Amino acid sequence: MAKAARTVAAWRTYREVTRAGPGLGARLRGIPRMIGAALRGSYPGMSRGMLATMGLGVIYLISPIDVIPEFLAVIGVADDFGVFLWLMASLLGESGRYLEWERTHSAAGKTSGMAPPAPGTPGTGPRS
Q1: Contact, 90 vs 54, CB < 8 A?
Q2: Under a CB-based contact definition with an 8 Å cutoff, are residues 84 and 61 in contact?
Q3: Could you read off the pLDDT of 21-34 as tens digits, one per residue?
């Protein structure tokens, strides 16, 4: 019964994240670019605090130290699974927003990290 509930929770998370926008593969490929852009400060959608929180989630998942020990059967695995679902939903959801942001900014020529020239800057307007 618990396994079925976890499967349903995972499926709901997946459906919620991929309901609209880029597909799962594109979101997964976008995660490293999103993290890099967030670390450089060029992506305003993710703060360093959120990155740190996600990093703590990864550390919690791979750490041998657990809040609820694994030997407590279903309960011990549930906390890890909850952190995993939160982490995946956060990463996939934010990577979808990042891909949309990246697409709109690359169309405007802003992915280089440089702001477009201000109006009236010499060499950018029509010649008189």
Answers
A1: yes
A2: yes
A3: 788 889 999 999 99
